[in-house]
Amino acid sequence: RSVKTRRSFFGGQLGGRLPSTKMLILADPTGDLSAAYREGVRLRNELERRGRSINVHLKTTDIDAQFTKKNIRDYDIVHFSGHANYIPEDPSQSGWLLNNSKLTAKDVLALGSGGHFPSIVFSNACQSGQTKEWRVEKDFENRVFGLGNAFLAAGANHYIGSFWQILDEP
């Protein structure tokens, strides 16, 4: 989907860091998705095998909201492989489930005002692309409609997520 809005965005630019692009892979932060862990390791290994154009950092343990908020702006690309949830009653509380914590859509939106932000976010997690219907109502452009909406509004140029549940093995 392409999103068009009058809302102010905090911009990220892919490739703004030379000589290489920095990528953060967050794999299996809750420690119960062995295939998500293997996905992160395979992705890192494949990217490292191809050369030095992407500087890859794989994190598989001690991934909590504090670590993620502190470090996410240091990267150009973020690949998340783990659990997420969508809260239809309050989409701003939707988010990535981490080690004893959660990175909510509201948290992500707050991170956008801090400067550099990842240009690409790939969220391989259940309902990570799910969104509440965007209705033109008073102050609608300042609302959070889900995790994807929050990342895009915070400055990501591209967000890839899922609308449905994802089983670990497939």
Written description of the protein model:
With 170 residues, the chain is an alpha/beta fold. Helix content is 22%, strand content 22%. The protein has a 5-stranded parallel beta sheet with strand order 2-1-3-7-8, sandwiched between helices. The longest helix is centred in the N-terminal third of the chain and has 16 residues, at 34-49. The radius of gyration is 15 Å and the shape is globular. The model is unreliable at 9-18 (pLDDT under 50).
Key terms:
170 residues, alpha/beta, five-stranded parallel sheet, three-stranded antiparallel sheet, 4 helices, 22% helix, 22% strand
**Major beta-sheet overview:** 5 strands, parallel
Anisotropy-based shape = globular
- Helical content, roughly? 10-25%
E-strand count: 8
Alpha-beta content class: alpha/beta
Radius of gyration (Å): 15 Å
- Roughly how many Å apart are the termini? 24 Å
Q: Can you give the mean pLDDT?
A: 82
**How do the SSEs run, as a string of H and E?**
EHEHEEEEHEHE
Instruction: Give the low-confidence spans.
Output: 9-18
Beta content comes to: 15-25%
Give a quick summary of the entry.
The chain has 170 residues and is of the alpha/beta class.
